Amino acid sequence: MGAKAMYVVVLAGGSGTRLWPRSRSETPKHLLNLLRTDVSMLQETVGRMLPVVAPEDVYVVTNARHVDAVREQLPEVPPENVLAEPIGRNSGPAVGYAAAHIHKRDPQGVMLVLPADHVILKKEDFRAVARTGARAAEHGHLVTLGITPTSPDIGYGYMETGEEIQTIDGYAVRAVVRFTEKPDLETATRYVESGRYVWNSGMFMWQASTILEEMRQYMPGLFDALSALEPVLGTPAEAAEIGRVWPELEDRSIDYGVLEQSHKVVTLPVDIGWSDVGDWAALAEFSPRDEDGNSLLGDAMAFGCRDSLVYSSGRLITAIGLEDMIVVDTGDAVLVCPKSRAQEVRKVVDRLKAEQRREQL
Amino acid sequence: MGAKAMYVVVLAGGSGTRLWPRSRSETPKHLLNLLRTDVSMLQETVGRMLPVVAPEDVYVVTNARHVDAVREQLPEVPPENVLAEPIGRNSGPAVGYAAAHIHKRDPQGVMLVLPADHVILKKEDFRAVARTGARAAEHGHLVTLGITPTSPDIGYGYMETGEEIQTIDGYAVRAVVRFTEKPDLETATRYVESGRYVWNSGMFMWQASTILEEMRQYMPGLFDALSALEPVLGTPAEAAEIGRVWPELEDRSIDYGVLEQSHKVVTLPVDIGWSDVGDWAALAEFSPRDEDGNSLLGDAMAFGCRDSLVYSSGRLITAIGLEDMIVVDTGDAVLVCPKSRAQEVRKVVDRLKAEQRREQL
User: Fold this and answer.
1) Each residue of A116-126: pLDDT tens digit?
2) Which residues pair with A151 in a beta bridge?
């Protein structure tokens, strides 16, 4: 089997609710330089693949209102490769839209689907994994990149692995028996102890033809829409047609829509220093710390604090006697929260929505 | 003995360091409306005596740079009764300056010395106490108003009470055997358990002639300066003369300079709902609370918090899962601190001074 071309598909549709008040609907997580490096998470996501993938083989699917910002952040990616969703419809339609584009160009092409806002510390290892995953994808598998759990985290999706299907480049490719979204702590603990579960990283590899075939079976509404769209892809009529069909699509994740039902799903367990940096506690793990375990970012002063993240976007923040806490200040809002409750930031955003406080959303 | 006239002397010289970031050198604690009533602490201090003292018998001693603000806040007090200290020299010189003014006008007049930034909940009881204290002062005593301790607070000064000297209006006036400034916790606990100690409220009563006589003995440098000043008091030459003598005065509190040495000191134990509101934890005690014990002031949102103070001066503050915490936001600074460490706010201010961050001081 000859090596097929690899295309990177970056899903830049989320907002990163739990990283409020930094992430906002107008400036979602992936457009931010959250880790205080010199690049945004989106730029980091694309940049880590550019050593092995040409910029014209990179696609980004994002909300129409962020298309300009994405194109500005990724000047090397052809503007027409930034695909605009009129409104968010979850990852199923987003993956389908990119698959249709790639399929029209190269039906056997292998898609590497990447969320735009994850951290991968071992970049070289990740590129090696992608080569291996591409080979598995060429066998017709829907390949999920699985992360060996380091804790019974209840914020992740878990995949139960089954029999080993084949070995590629020394990696064991295993069947996936079951998906479980965000289990309770007891269940997650049992999963981790069993050694048979991996976290669903949201990173996938498959041929465009394979995923479209599975969509025909499991998401037929989406498949029909994509088929109708096919003739106009890459033409001036594309935007109008997308605007017409998109709102009718079901809001459904690729996991729920296809992966949890397909018999072609396998997992490639990987060790790449991954995190979805889903909340402030996760972000703290990736921030530089002083000898007391504190991450003081921006104009922050700590007195007798331990293992705390103090994140200033400009104004002075002073913290006394904090332990395992998060303090975040943006120009217009402050968040104070123990690390152990970082997931609950979601509630703040829900409340702001309920109160229609648009200026803080 | 005929009743002597009573003069209220408000000491408005402090800055309220431990209430940073609300209190600043330019807007000290007493000028602020910290308790979110419609008056500042200074206005509250004067206002609570106006039912029994005429505005022209009220004096305020304050730093020269706050004179205008004080006069603006107290339009009923004659402007010439607002006495300007060129620089802070602690309470000894401030009391002496007011005593000299009052003595020139009415040597037997009784001074009621009040810090400008304390809370007294039982106002009617306080006015009754002042009447009793005035009678004790007319006996030639230096009367300290003593507060029965409710906890072994290490932020206060303690006075050991001795024999009962006399009973006035049913109040036992006792000798003061010893002063102790801010004892350690063990000592404070012993004091409270003994039942013989009261807190030094910083509120005093004496005749102008009595305190000046004691200053002659125990603060002779100050007494000489005041004597030299006497001829120009109330004349256009006063300001220049004050500017000349003031910087030479020793920086010394009235407690240390006179009270700890004089044999005329007595205490009148009072129950008036008093607090010096010295730090944010004390302030929280006087703020309205919701059913979870939280005080949410301004644009503050709490999720699963208990017994916490969240104080916004404008921007949104969101707090998740806090217990016994303080969060304060002003336009240019944020403070996060457990209530138990509210005293340490002082360290923040010290650091800002060391770093010469004038805009936050």
Assistant:
1) 999 999 999 99
2) none
- Bridge-partner residues for A160, per DSSP? A178, A197
Count of CB atoms within 10 A of residue B72's CB? 9
| CA dihedral sign, ordered A208, A213, A217, A223 | positive
- A251-278 residue pLDDT tens: 999 999 999 999 999 999 999 999 999 8
Angle, CA of B121, B125 and B126, to the nearest 5°:
75
Contact B361/A at CB under 8 A: no
Residue limits of CATH 3.90.550.10 in chain A:
6-275
Structural element, H or E, at residue A96:
helix A91-105
Cα separation, B277 vs B285, whole angstroms: 9
The token duo for B336 is 């996060």
Q: A42: which residues sit within 8 A by CB, 6+ positions away?
A: A10, A12, A30, A31, A60, A70, A73, A74, A116, A117
How do beta strands B142-147 and B274-275 pair?
Answer: unpaired
| Cα–Cα distance for residue pair A309/A300, rounded to 1 Å | 10
Report CA-CA distances (Å) from A316 to A225, A313, A327, B32, B324: 52, 9, 12, 21, 22
**Lookup result for tokens 């409104």:** A87
Q: Quick one: how far is CA B73 from the chain centroid?
A: 17
- CATH fold, domain B6-275, is Spore Coat Polysaccharide Biosynthesis Protein SpsA; Chain A (3.90.550)
What is the ipTM for the molecules in this complex?
0.84
Helix (H, G, I), strand (E, B) or coil at A330: strand
User: What's the token pair of residue A137?
Assistant: 């994808």
Q: How far apart are CA A339 and CA A326, in angstroms?
A: 6
Q: Which residue has the tokens 């969320």?
A: A115
Is residue A352 within 8 A of residue A325, CB to CB? The reply is no
B23 contacts on A by Cβ (under 8 Å): none
Task: Name the band, by pLDDT with cuts 50, 70 and 90, for residue B2.
Answer: low
Q: Which of B19, B297, B336, B340 to mutate against chain A (most A CBs within 10 Å)?
A: B336
Q: What is the DSSP track for A218-245?
A: H-HHHHHHHHHHGGGTTSTTHHHHHHHH
CA–CA dist A330, B21 (Å, integer): 17
Q: Identify from A18, A336, A346 which residue to disrupt to test chain B contact, counting B C-beta atoms within 10 A and taking the largest count.
A: A336
Q: Please list, in sequence order, all residues whose beta carbon lies within 8 angstroms of the beta carbon of residue B335, skipping any fewer than 6 positions away.
A: A318, A319, A320, B20, B21, B280, B326, B327, B328, B329, B345, B348
User: How distant, in Å, are the alpha carbons of B15, B234, B244 from that of B61?
Assistant: 13, 14, 17
Q: At residue B348, what is the residue type?
A: V
B336 touches chain A (CB under 8 A): yes
CB contact under 8 A, A320 and B338: yes
Enter the pTM of the model. Answer: 0.86
